[in-house]
Amino acid sequence: MTHLSILSPHPFLCSLKLQLPPSLPGRGRGWVFFGWVFLFLLVNCDTVAAQTRPVSHAILFGLGATRQQDTYLSPLQYKGTQIQFLYETLRPTRLLKKHVSSQAILQADFSYTHSPAENADYLGAAIHYDHAWHYNWQLHSFRVMAGPQIGATLGGLYNTRNGNNPAQARASIRISASVAALYNFRLWKQPFTLREQLDMPLVGISFSPAYGQSYYELFSLHHYDHNIRPTTPFNAPSLRSLLTLDIPFRRSTLRAAYLFHVQQSRLNHIRQHTYTHAFLIGYVRHLNIVHPRRSTPEGFVL
Predict the structure, then answer these.
(1) Are 175 and 199 in contact (CB under 8 A)?
(2) Contact indicator for 200, 233 with CB cutoff of 8 Å
(3) Residue 9 falls within a domain, yes or no?
(4) Partners of 295 in beta bridges
């Protein structure tokens, strides 16, 4: 009887000995040997080379109140309701000794607001996409995150009463500063996570027609009038504050959130602002994705 020892870190294979009967033909002994080698490599690839990395996905829906003003369409401030959708992805990276995390936020909002006399309405929609890279400081149950963020917004506002210039387009690109603080705590023997995140645009560019300039002049007659303008906190002070609470529920995680979003600008003698307060609720999925020969940053907790 021939014995072949297989050395492996896997507990099942660490002391396994392959016995080949002497009566087995040479070709059969070769097939058995290669079969066990294949099993050895398969298990080792799964347990040694492949490492898991955490990824967090959150989907939220919400409803809130909003106030809008756009002096290109009307000098009045409109008030009404806004529907919010927010999708977030958070994952660790290998940057700066694995202390940097990557965050992507896709936010969409749909608003329906009314004039003070309730004889005119605004229909609005916008999509915001932001991608941030945060440096993480882990302090026991606290984690502080800070870093740059790049983003873009595309949307529009339509006035149901205006005959001339009834709509206003919105498009912008920005670089922002993003900071967040997370606190992990236990309540009723269950893990909870509280987070506050602030995103403030620092510099960017934005589209804006001139006051009184029609879109027909701009796009059909090509009468350009400084319609792409730089933005800073001095002419476009804006802020997004997102407060979230992750609540364990059975084998899932629920997330409740409060969103305060300030968007305002003063470009080409046109004042715009949108102030939104919204409450959102949704769920979070925590996944472990297998990456060959990559390890999870030490101490990183989503």
Answers:
(1) no
(2) yes
(3) yes
(4) none
The secondary structure of residue 28, as a DSSP letter, is H
* Whole-number pLDDT of residue 11: 44
Question: CA-CA distance, 202 to 208, in Å (whole number)?
Answer: 18
Tell how far CA 192 is from the center of its chain: 20
- Contact, 91 vs 54, CB < 8 A? yes
pTM for this model (two decimals): 0.78
For residues 35 and 61, membership in a common domain is answered with no
Q: How far apart are CA 227 and CA 218, in angstroms?
A: 9
38 located within any domain: yes
pLDDT band at 98, cuts 50/70/90?
confident
**Structural domain that includes position 79:** 53-292
Q: How far apart are CA 98 and CA 92, in angstroms?
A: 7
Residue 230 falls inside a structural domain:
yes
Same structural domain for residues 110 and 217? yes
Whether 254 shows a pLDDT value over 90: the answer reads yes
Number of domains in the chain: 2
- When pLDDT is cut at 50, 70 and 90, the band that residue 189 belongs to is confident
Same domain, 63 and 187: yes
